[in-house]
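TASK: fixed-backbone design
INPUT:
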């Protein structure tokens, strides 16, 4: 008998009925039903769970929501850098690395790759490049590796551009559908010999647009499947499975965001299995959402970012970008980026969030929430597939309509005071009414405006 078994044997089991009797006594005449609530307007939750009322309790032990083949919960601490001038971006990157980041993401056109990566040891860190000319960029990176006498094969990170995401946000293909598919094929051919990912399905803007957790799951699944369908006549399911990654924005619903990542990892593995892939790894890059951040009491955003970061790490993200707390303010604090990095360092080096694989596994509440989100997310994914898939569902306005409906409910709850955000519409220093805008207003809005998905 293990020490753990011996410890738990010292306590008598408590039945669900006994728990309910205790709760009713503590409520002093109030009904337990008064404590029930709804997550994201779709999932009914009760205030207590044990193995008697947890959904599919018998399946929890067998269900795999952890990162495959991982003995720790380690994640990459990422710094996101927009490239306008390569030398300036290089300076920011080196500063981020010196402060504790071990992963970099560069967004933008790069003409001088050597200047961008000067004094950066790309052979020991993960680097993501977001560039619409990804195949050409891969050729440049190969040459740089050759010049530095390092192997391109061992490079980690990605060289990608999310053309389907661009379609959703801008309403048109970056060039044409045929040219996009050709570019994706060329990029895959360049990167197959390395560990670099070539496909990205970024769904962060759906969360920023007011989509529910369930909708984000369903859309992400459809997004990934669309990429596979576009390319599976030229590449095997195994090759595509190893080359795709997902981006999620992590909001402020602490437990819901944990369950979101766990549910998605489980469902994407199911999708890959259906395509016949043996690899069911799911690379998830997370970024803290700025939805409901204040530009007047920006220090509150530190707490929001920390809560979101904890959700992302417990949920099992592979890399995490924490947005600086003053992102929505025109007055930038010199130390805000350092604070963002420090949050991750504290979670890893002081709180040891990287030591336990799938740390929320076995929690009746989170397991139940994971199961509910997975079921409803899969159902929404199937609805999108019945419309012909991600592209056709966008062209028909199906995805936009559902996201807009959710955003309307979110705005109504906010404007009616049912959704309280400290420092924004609750305990705010500004004595004025603030409403949530659906349109892409400047960041000086009291809270981050909702993106507007459209197709022309």
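OUTPUT:
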């Amino acid at each position: 008998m293990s020490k753990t078994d011996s410890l738990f044997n010292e306590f008598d089991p408590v039945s669900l009925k006994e728990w309910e009797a205790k709760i009713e006594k503590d409520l002093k005449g109030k009904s337990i039903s008064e404590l029930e609530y709804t997550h994201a307007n779709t999932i009914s939750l009760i205030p207590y769970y044990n193995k008697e009322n947890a959904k599919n309790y018998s399946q929890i032990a067998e269900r795999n929501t952890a990162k495959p083949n991982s003995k720790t919960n380690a994640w990459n601490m990422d710094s996101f850098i927009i490239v306008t001038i390569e030398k300036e971006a290089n300076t920011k990157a080196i500063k981020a690395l010196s402060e504790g980041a071990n992963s970099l993401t560069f967004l933008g056109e790069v003409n001088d790759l050597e200047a961008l990566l000067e004094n950066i040891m790309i052979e020991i860190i993960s680097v993501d490049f977001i560039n619409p000319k990804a195949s050409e960029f891969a050729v440049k990176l190969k040459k740089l590796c050759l010049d530095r006498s390092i192997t391109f094969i061992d490079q980690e990170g990605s060289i990608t551009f999310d053309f389907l995401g661009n379609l959703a946000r801008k309403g048109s293909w970056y060039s044409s559908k045929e040219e996009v598919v050709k570019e994706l094929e060329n990029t895959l051919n360049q990167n197959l010999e390395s560990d670099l990912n070539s496909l990205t399905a970024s769904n962060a803007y759906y969360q920023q647009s007011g989509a529910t957790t369930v909708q984000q799951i369903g859309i992400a699944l459809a997004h990934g499947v669309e990429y596979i369908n576009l390319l599976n006549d030229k590449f095997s399911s195994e090759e595509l499975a190893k080359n795709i990654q997902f981006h999620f924005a992590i909001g402020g619903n602490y437990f819901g965001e944990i369950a979101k990542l766990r549910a998605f990892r489980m469902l994407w593995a199911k999708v890959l299995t259906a395509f016949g892939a043996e690899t069911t790894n799911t690379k998830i890059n997370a970024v803290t959402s700025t939805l409901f951040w204040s530009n007047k009491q920006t220090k509150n955003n530190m707490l929001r970012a920390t809560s979101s970061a904890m959700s992302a790490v417990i949920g099992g993200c592979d890399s995490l970008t924490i947005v600086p707390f003053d992102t929505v303010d025109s007055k930038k604090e010199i130390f805000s980026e350092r604070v963002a990095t420090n949050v991750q360092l504290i979670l890893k080096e002081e709180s040891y969030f990287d030591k336990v694989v799938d740390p929320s596994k076995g929690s009746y509440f989170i397991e139940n929430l994971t199961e509910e989100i997975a079921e409803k997310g899969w159902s929404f994914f199937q609805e999108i597939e019945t419309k012909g898939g991600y592209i056709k569902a966008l062209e028909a306005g199906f995805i936009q309509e559902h996201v807009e409906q959710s955003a309307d409910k979110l705005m109504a709850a906010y404007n009616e005071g049912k959704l309280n955000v400290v420092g924004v519409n609750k305990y705010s220093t500004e004595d004025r009414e603030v409403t949530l805008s659906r349109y892409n207003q400047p960041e000086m809005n009291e809270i981050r405006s909702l993106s507007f998905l459209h197709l022309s």
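COMMENT: The longest strand covers residues 76-82.
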